[in-house]
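Lab notebook, bench 4. Still working through the backlog of constructs that have no structural model yet. Next entry is a single chain of 495 residues. Request: give me the structure tokens for it.
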Amino acid sequence: MPAKKQNLIKKPPVVVVLGHVDHGKTAILDFIRKTNVVEKESGGITQHIGAYEVEHKGKKVTFIDTPGHEAFSAMRSRGAKVADIAILVVDATEGVKEQTKEAINFIKKAEIPMVVAINKMDRSGAQPEKVKKELAENEVLVESLEGKVLSCNVSAKTGEGMDELLEHILLVAEMEDLKTDISRPGEGTIIESYLDPKRGPIATLVLENGVLKENDILATSSNLGKVKSLSDFQGKPIKSASPSQPVSVLGFEKSAGVGEKFKVYQTQEEAYGALKKEERGAPQVISIGPGQKVLNIVLKSDVLGSGEAIEGVLKNIPQEKVILRILKTEVGDIGVRDIKLAESGKAIIFGFRVKIDARTQAFAQQRKVRWKIFEVIYELVQEIRREMVNILEPEIQRIDLGEVKILALFKKDKEGQVIGGKVIEGEIEKGSLTEVLRKEAIVGKGRVKNLQQEKKDIQKVSKGKEAGILFQGEVEIKEGDVLKVFREERRRGEL
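Model written out:
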């Protein structure tokens, strides 16, 4: 049923910040909101989606900060879908990179307007005009090149262009005429989710319509809850949240699914009824054949968004040679139950920004269960790849060296057969392996135990030279045979 006009009010814009890693997305937000998140983030990379509210000239703007590393492709995509406006951040010294192009695609797919922020203008190598031309090559035409996309030159370090950037956002918001219906039941999107060891599941939400209050009954496609408490983005308790306002909610029965839509219901029965109507996907079944090598892992993360991002990257690891099987992925610190599961499943526990207490460590040591904790996602993924490679048998690689035509037969004793030959291809080495070819058919195998020229031991003989050869093998060499000489190297397996 169409919303009544009197129920519609203007809503603050929700802005997503996208761009290549290290191009300064979080630094720009830091300047805008006068806080410092960058130094708290491991490896200088934003590890989760965060939502922040600022005020400029009396008007509110909600920013969603999305991670820039390639591991967070799914999270960046989700961030764009929640937003009304996108800021595309491009480094003035580096220009358009692969993740810049990816961000442009997300913005177009979400069908939201963008504002371009050409950052790091304080640096000597800044070339904003070159950046604009590169953007034009990727179908983003800014106003100064007779396009429709607003852009500004900024510096998160000096503050240059920051006011202009906020003005652009408010101008685009005005042009988009963003409205919301506050009389409708509250609904919106889960931005982040984590498990507080003392308080329970906590979710970060952004409202799209309606108002969210204490004691409201919520449901997502897979979860139920009743709002026990609300906090704003700074952690301060609030009684209600309005559209576009980022808010932390305590009250879900379990950790909410990141990216899920939520809705407020009048009664618990209505919420449960809506939950039951949702289609449930069948659990993933991994088929393992006889002799197939498998790495079992238990994955623990600080928040659901991290776990989702890790699983997304792990799916891209080749599994033809070693299957990667996740026995459990869960939010929270590593506990005794995780150790027991890893022991029974012969698994390694991988943790991302979680803890393990001394008692659990001792229990793990007793049960001979390995665990590893990481602060940066790509380091965790690299370690899982290493563990998969370690399961593989070393690969034997044959390296062909050369060919020798047998010209003379000298003697045969317990040491082997002494023969004379000429190198007709490549070179031969003392100690190398051989195949014996007779009329182009392999009749046996052996080894070059020794090489001599003018009765002196040598290490190798090159093409065109003759040498005496001490051959060891089960086949008896005949004049006219060809020895195909090679060596084998044991190399670490590759996935």
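Notes after review: The first helix runs from residue 25 to 33. The chain has ten helices and 29 strands. Flag for follow-up if needed.
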